[in-house]
From TrEMBL:
Keywords: Signal, Transport. Residues 1-28 form the signal peptide. CDD domains: PBP2_TRAP_DctP10 (cd13678). This is DctP family TRAP transporter solute-binding subunit. InterPro entries: DctP_fam (IPR018389), TRAP_DctP (IPR004682), TRAP_DctP_sf (IPR038404). It comes from Vreelandella nanhaiensis. It holds the Pfam family DctP. SUPFAM superfamilies: Periplasmic binding protein-like II (SSF53850). Belongs to the bacterial solute-binding protein 7 family. One of its GO terms (biological process) is transmembrane transport. GO terms for cellular component: outer membrane-bounded periplasmic space.
């Protein structure tokens, strides 16, 4: 029996009201949304905000269910993009770092000391370079909708203040995602080791690693200082944007109205979360300092020493990212 004939058979004899309910529930859709961090962090809150807005405006027709802590990829955050592309996950609010193994263009944001401040981030994501990045994602089977922000990543460790590349000498640093991070910390003379966020916390607790790098919001909410990370250096060496995205096949099954709704709500949630993350930076820093963490700020000269020490990373990775994309980003940064 074909599905339509079967449906006709099943629906015969149902009242008008029951038919209406059936039609309504047949339309109601639930999409899974993956995140690495929970709603204790701005990142998780970005996804929850998206879900809330969709719930409100779709009148229950569309539901986003957020699955935090990389649970849909068993903690392996670098598999999130593949899982979304293959349809195991419908949607995600994900980090450019974690998706960069599958989308090499995303390494743009991880180039050390390349995008120095918030206006530079906005110039890159909001201009031609941002469009090129979105095209790169789309060409790999995922529809990108909006930007959010995990934040500028700062380095911490348990041994002593870091004010120059020599201070990183031999330090075991937990890094994320792409091999680019391996190169950056090798160039600085450290001993980097790649691991997921799930594995990072026990590794910091046991002292298996000496240091890590993450935005202030993550350091603060996860209480990284309480696992011995007493020294924090503000070096803004890279910004970690978040991207709201949906699997392409799922996207194509949605109505035009639903697509517009998802895009508009993602944009709104992303703007809301980015503004909040930025606004909270100074109070987070104060809270971290109050808990006894030594905070090191770099002089221009010290900053330049880090830039010089990581020049080789830029040269090695610019061609892999795509020279035209790197140039578009550079133009946006210079023109801001
Ligand atoms: O693993 C990390 O350090 C985190 C939580 O910041 C990311 O997922 C990029």
């Amino acid at each position: 029996m074909t599905l339509t004939r079967h449906m006709a058979y099943v629906t015969k004899g149902l009242t008008g009201a029951a038919l209406l309910t059936l039609a309504f529930s047949a339309q109601a859709r639930e999409l899974s949304v993956s995140t690495v961090l929970s709603d204790a962090f701005p990142w998780g809150q970005a996804a929850e905000k998206w879900a809330e807005l969709v719930e409100e405006r779709s009148g229950g027709e569309l539901t986003l269910r957020v699955y935090p802590n990389s649970q849909l990829v068993s903690g392996d955050q670098t598999r999130e993009f593949s899982a979304m592309r293959s349809g195991l996950i419908d949607a995600a609010v994900g980090s450019t770092i974690n998706w960069s193994p599958q989308v090499p263009e995303l390494n743009l944001f991880s180039l050390p000391f390349f995008i120095p401040d918030e206006t530079a981030v906005d110039a890159v994501t909001g201009g031609e370079a941002g469009e090129m990045v979105f095209e790169a994602i789309e060409s790999r089977g995922v529809i990108p909708l909006a930007w959010g922000e995990n934040g500028f990543r700062q380095v911490s460790n348990s041994r002593g203040p870091i004010a120059e590349p020599d201070d990183l000498d031999g330090l075991k640093i937990r890094v994320v995602g792409s091999p680019l991070f391996q190169d950056t910390f090798n160039a600085l003379g450290a001993d980097p080791t790649q691991m997921s966020w799930t594995d990072a916390q026990p590794a910091l607790t046991t002292g298996a690693v000496d240091g890590q790098e993450n935005p202030l919001s993550v350091f603060d909410v996860a209480r990284i200082d309480q696992v011995g990370q007493e020294h924090l250096t503000l070096w803004n060496y890279m910004n970690d944007p978040l991207i709201f995205a949906v699997n392409q096949q799922v996207w194509q099954t949605l109505s035009k109205e639903q697509q517009t709704l998802l895009r508009e709500t993602a944009l709104e949630a992303g703007e809301w979360e980015t503004a909040m993350t930025r606004e909270q930076e100074s109070e987070r820093l104060a809270a971290i300092q109050e808990r006894g963490v030594t905070v090191t700020e770099l002089t221009d000269e010290q900053y330049q020493a880090f830039v010089d020490a990581t020049q080789s990373v830029y040269e090695k990775w610019a061609p892999r990212i795509g020279e035209s994309l790197v140039e578009a980003a550079q133009t946006a940064i210079d023109g801001r």
